[in-house]
Model the fold of this input.
Amino acid sequence: MVWADQDALAVLATATVTGGDEPDRHRGASFYADPVAWLVADAVGAVFDAAGQSGKGTGTDVGVLAVSEYGTSHTMREVTAMRDRGRVSPLRFAGANPGSVAGLACIVHGLRGPSLMLSMPPPAARPTVALLARAWLTGGVCRRVVVSEHERGPAGHTVRTVVLTSAEARC
Done:
């Protein structure tokens, strides 16, 4: 993911988190978000730690952009099994929504700025992400934008996250 000196964006910090298809059981039974959404939330926390900043309570100062082409097999199996029993739990259904990949990070870290989930391969999304981040930052919509890219590989799931600001604000 290359952002510095591109489209008037400056990188404040980066973080990478990896995981598998199965959910982390310590999360609690009442939050049925896809494990990828939890990985993104963890990556957002890690990038704020790397930047020496807290995401908590930042309100509308931080925008969130997430990009993923894939969900996890776990979530697909769970929803399919519920469908086969004749009823899909509203909580499970909401947690399987692609928008939860960006939304859960907002909930966990108290972020209330603009947010968007792009369901496409991260390399193809980068021009759109750069355009949105630049517009949000230069338009005064927010002061920082967190971008998380999810990819699935043979070893599992990887989320790369970056905190962007405008190049002018960095000076």
